[in-house]
Amino acid sequence: MTTENLVSRTHAEVSVGDELPPLAIALTRTLIVATALATRDFQDVHHDPRLAADKGSPDIFMNILTSNGLVGRYITDWAGPEAELRKVAIRLGAPNYPGDTMTLTGTVTAKTTAEDGTPLVEIAVVGANKLGNHVTGTVTVKLPEGAEA
């Protein structure tokens, strides 16, 4: 996904069951190291292959802050510039190692309105690589209301 279309989705035009287009992310060594450093995570398992191996990992692997950020990017790319992430609840599973691809997918699971009238959408998200599901969870996003059909 890209920001080619800078129009936000509205709460009115989204339906439960809508599927987000998949987003494939190449898991390069540079991405894994650079994002660990950008999130100030200096743990050696995110940048030093030898020390990662000493700790039982076949290679360096992506940190949770990067996974969280990529999930947020996936949702906001789909939802548009007026979207506001309200809650990101994820769990990690299979590691993201260099040389693989993680593909994010999502499905709208609920449309609600908060007590204050804020229009919310909940999306179930999965990020999978060749080892299995790297990240699973839900994201709650505020969307502009839009005209009800």
Shape: elongated
Percent strand equals 35-45%
Major sheet: size, sense and barrel closure? 5 strands, antiparallel
Tell me the radius of gyration.
Answer: 17 Å
Q: Which spans of ≥5 residues are poorly predicted at pLDDT below 50? A: none
Give the terminus-to-terminus CA distance.
27 Å
Residue share in helices?
10-25%
Descriptive overview:
The protein is α+β, with helices and mostly antiparallel strands. The radius of gyration is 17 Å and the shape is elongated. The chain contains 3 helices and 5 strands, in the order βαααββββ. The chain has helices at residues 29-38, 49-54, 64-79; strands at residues 19-27, 84-92, 100-113, 119-129, 132-142.
What topology does this entry show?
Layout: E1 19-27, H1 29-38, H2 49-54, H3 64-79, E2 84-92, E3 100-113, E4 119-129, E5 132-142
Antiparallel strand pairs: 1-3, 2-5, 3-4, 4-5
